[in-house]
Amino acid sequence: MMPPSALVPEGISSVALLSELRRLAWGAADILLAYARGEQPPYGFSRALSVDDGGEGPVSAADLAVNRWLLDGLQQAFPLAPWTLLSEETAKEQLVPGEPLAAEWLWILDPLDGTKDFLQGTGEYAVHLALVRNNRPVLGVVLLPALEELWFGLLDDTAGKAWCENRAGQQTPVRLSDRRTPAELVLVASRNHRDQRLEQLLVALEVGQTRSIGSVGGKVATILRGETDLYISLSGTSAPKDWDMAAPEAVLLAAGGAFSHADGRPLVYNSGDVRQAGCLIASHGLLHGDLCERAQRAMATIEPGFAL
Questions:
Q1: Domain 4-173 part of CATH 3.30.540.10
Q2: What is the pLDDT of residues 176-208, one digit of tens each?
């Protein structure tokens, strides 16, 4: 186990934090599964599943209930912790464009990544929690309620540890694939965010099969299980946000995978711009440098001047 000081603020027990994250995560799963079945959710939340299509996507009562459950839970469990809490649902009130939050330690939460999939009943949605220190994640949690999988990733400057748990606390290890040629690679992609540029890029990369799955957390979990090897986010009219990427990135890096811009730059969080724009590549790591080089060359032709 890595030194607790590398993962959490001084005075916070890493053991206590992981225990609380388990409780909060499975509580969030209970809330979402109840909404998905049309049942009364626990912890006093409203049964109505309303949808507001304003802003940048649908927001449901399930989003808001899990958001409140997680924010209140962290605040009540660690009232003196020197961290700041930011979520997708509170960002408009908390953030000023161009100005990072004044926080060395920052929780970045997405209470429901894949809201469209949740509302469509595919089961392909996730909950993301990431603890970021000075713009980079040190701890990530990805919960897949429909699969009853809880992924943890812990990072320090020199090492990482990642694993999956079920409700009983039984742990299973990461199983990154050993596929080593582009033609063998299995790409995981979104159903809702594909365009002609991405299709052209995939042809240029000469990858093999493609699977379509909702939620960034769900996509990265397929890499962690060894089912797929590669995920690409190519910004178009919109871009993913900090809360989409921070937790999945933390778990994948802790597992020994790779996650970067196509030019090799790391993702940066709490920069004053929550958009994670450009060509982002997440992979099992074995061919990451080669894939990034291929993507750079391809994008120079597909869209000259595209900011990687």
A1: yes
A2: 999 999 999 999 988 766 678 988 998 899 998
